[in-house]
Amino acid sequence: MLRIINVVGARPNFMKIAPIVDEMRRRSDRIQPLLVHTGQHYDDSMSESFFKDLQIPRADMNLGVGSGSHAEQTARIMLAFEPVLQDFRPDWVVVVGDVNSTMAATIVASKLLVRVAHVEAGLRSRDRSMPEEINRIVTDSLADLLLTPSRDADENLLREGISPQKIRFVGNVMIDTLRRNLDRARGLDVLDRLGLQSKQFCVMTLHRPSNVDDKQTLQGILDAMCALAERLPVVFAVHPRTQARIEEFGLEERIRKQPRAVLTEPLGYLEFLQLYSNSRLVLTDSGGIQEETTVLGIPCLTLRENTERPITVTEGTNRVVGSDPRRIEREAIDALDNSTRPARIPEFWDGHTASRIVDAIEERSRTED
Ligand code: UD1
To answer: What is the pLDDT of residue 341?
Structure first.
């Protein structure tokens, strides 16, 4: 029996772990999975609602670490996770994505000589001012099995000197979740509730420190949003960090002057899926949304200077446009006027990645027994 601890912590982790835990439970004659939530995200709208929407079984354990500086948060996760590993003595720890919980759990497991499988390995923005880039580099250099979403990720890892035996191209597990939930999302009334018509609005999300922690930058992006709203309504689903900065910088009044900019709390997985899948254009600084819009063929503008997901640009619908308000406006108008951009769905973003992941873990366990 393989004992496996699956770790989640923050919003973008939940849609990645859901199909993996599901697949492990289907193999319950051979695998005993445990789900550990670090508690990095704790608001209902950032955590619990995803468990409900994605029908993820309750976490077996919540370490309750909450918010803090990077060092504080990472240290608290490590302190709380170590005894869990010592008690459960798993054969593997599975971590996903690039949040602080991903890196913290990896460091603890590696030092206790527990094998780590990293799902979404090999992505690189080459921008070390981004905390996630540090998390990716540390996690990938320690993990024993690197499960990659795209071929460019394999190349990044090889270039860093990682042994090819550790790397397995499995595809994008988030797309498993997307495909499984499209029909369920279709029945929701979120468009009616917000007074929107399909393909007659844009969606925006924003939460990166580089975009929201500096007043000038945040104000510029919000001004661009308000200008775009003159053309088409924009729904802006506001992350708690961003909400706090808008209040701190006194920017509410600016937004309130534009009634076609519709602000909402962070939405649940299904409601947000229903929303952006019906939108004309998405503006975001999220990683996952670049991938989801590519699969659904929705034009996406990434409000960052770089992306660790270049395949969404070369094959998909994504354009990396930075955070200069004039450029955002120009690119948005261009995307609205010339929206027929052919997109390809990348290899293995096919809804079957979770089973390839669990196969790879089982295979690796057999060869090393
Ligand atoms: C984290 C991840 C980021 C991911 C994002 C998705 C890291 C380094 N960053 O960023 O990669 O894209 O999650 O949301 O791991 N807060 C709440 N309620 C919550 C969680 C956070 O109010 O449930 C507020 C707190 O003020 C907190 C701030 O948001 O200080 C930032 O939270 P944190 O978990 O540190 O990082 P995120 O910005 O959410």
So the answer is: 64
Q: Could you confirm whether 37 is annotated as catalytic?
A: no
H or E element: which one contains 39?
none
Residues of the domain holding 320 = 186-337
Residue 77's pLDDT band, with cuts at 50, 70 and 90, is: very high
Alpha-carbon distance of 313 to 2, in angstroms, equals 39
Question: Are the C-beta atoms of 210 and 302 separated by less than 8 Å?
Answer: no
pLDDT of residue 325: 98
Domain membership flag for residue 344 = no
Eight-class DSSP state of 122: T
27 pLDDT higher than 60:
yes
For the domain that residue 205 is a member of, what is the CATH number? 3.40.50.2000
Question: Confidence band (pLDDT; 50, 70, 90) for 136?
Answer: very high
For residues 11 and 139, state if they share a domain. Answer: yes
Distance from Cα 41 to the centre of ligand 1, integer Å: 6
Per residue in 156-198, pLDDT (tens digit) is 999 999 999 999 999 999 999 999 999 999 989 999 999 999 9
Among the listed residues 37, 41, 118, 207, the single catalytic one is 207
Model pTM above 0.70: yes
Token pair 């670049």 is found at 290
216 and 237 both lie in a single domain? yes
Q: Is the CB of 11 under 6 A from ligand 1?
A: yes
Half-sphere exposure of 195 (CA within 13 A, CB side): 9
Atom of ligand 1 nearest to the CA of 98: 11
- Number of structural domains (the chain) is 2
Asked if 125 contacts 306 with a C-beta cutoff of 8 angstroms, the reply is yes
Q: Which residue has the tokens 């580099």?
A: 137
Which H/E stretch holds residue 329? helix 325-337
Q: Helices in 11-99 by DSSP H: which ranges?
A: 11-26, 48-53, 70-88
Are 303 and 218 in contact by the 8 Å Cβ rule? The answer is no
